[in-house]
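User: I'm curious whether this sequence folds into something compact or stays loose and floppy. Could you predict its structure so I can see for myself?
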Amino acid sequence: MTKLPIILKDNSDITENKEHPIIMELLNKNLSYLDKENFIIFPTSVKESEDLGENNFIFESKNDKIYTCNIAGIIKKENDEIQIKTRFFNNNNQTIDYFLQYMLKKVLNYNITKNTTQSDNTGTYHDLLVYLFPFYLKRAMKKGLYKEYINKRYNDFNVKGSIDVIQNINKNIPFSGKIAYKVREFSYDNKITQIIRHTLEKIKREYNFEFLDDKFLKENIYILQQNTKSYSKFHLDNILQDNIKNPVRHGYFSEYFPLQKLCIQILKSKKVEFAEDSSEVHGILIDVAWLWEKYLNTLLNEKFEHSDNRKRENGIYLFNNPSKKIVYPDFYNKDKKIVLDAKYKKLGNNSIGREDLYQIITYLHVLKAEKAGIIYPDAEKMECNNMGKLGGYGGEIFKKSFKIPQDVSSYSEFADEIKLSEDKIFDGIWEIINI
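Assistant: Here's the prediction. I'll summarize afterward.
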């Protein structure tokens, strides 16, 4: 008998579920522990980001209690399943996590709607796989279209491989001048490009997918289609099994490995299963803190510089010597002398935590800014609070809440409501810095 999944929310006390086998196995394990074939981790692998590995736990014990952290997703082991939603998910009237879906659409710059209505949780997380597909596809395509050696058979006048004796007997007796032979050669039409093509065709059938203004992705999808001439929907089972047995191992094309895993899961008709051995814990995990920061960047990018420690972009030097340590404040405007740090954690009526406070004070000092603040999501209010003026060299600290809609009856209503919050993103901030 199939068990119903347990629904949890991020940054929440889950002590009552502490005996759950998945929680017990993953307690106090960070994402680097899960950086293996059984998990798809969004936005990227732990090996490529020091941020993802060190402090991002799925389940963490603190003061004799157990909490979820900044991770959403699905985790499965045999018949046990846990789904972690954002803390803004409303169990009473939402079948999907509106906030998570909205941020994914906004950050990844596409629009996707399902052609058929499916209200169960399995459908919800299968949809999640599809929402992530463009990100992994674009990331892989930047390395060029995948090619590999494949075995091909020919029967013509231009022998360039080993002669196929049996095919010669079957096809070329009496002798007509042609020779049957086998050869290994590079081809763009292979198991990897084929499984990507099958995934694209499935998405076309089941979803309305718009890549908006992403010219790069549109062009590369066209190139993929032109180079998979042997595509047939009747070959799906063989292509799927071939990819399951032969994961991408080529170092140059390493970005195709998570894409291959994602395609396999999208094409499977059953529930999400990331491991051949169902006794192993497996699933899909999304770093919501990263997503929150990237979402804010879509709103702030016209007025603020956005630094990215993963890409090593727009950092600032802590010391006068440029060879010394570089840090990466989330958002800053040197002309207006203001620094903003994106925090996904709960703040509400609480003061800014010590580590976060020290961090933004450091940014404020090094940038010679006059104001530094934290911007965080909140379920109740949209306001900006001045925390006070610093001693010493001065500077003011503030925190800004961003309201996430709660009492909505549909995703479209949620989208309309959150756009009102977006329109008010600068309310209070400009007043604090006297603009």
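Summary: Residues 121-141 form the longest helix (21 residues). The radius of gyration is 26 Å.
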